[in-house]
Amino acid sequence: ERGLADALIVTGSATGSTTDPTRVARLAEALPEAPIWVGSGVGADHVVELEQAGAHGFIVGSSLRRDGLAGAPVDPERLETFTRALAGCRAGPSTAGPNRPQGTELA
Question: Which one of 14, 18, 87, 101 is separated from 70 by 20 to 30 angstroms, measured CA to CA?
Answer without folding.
Answer: 87
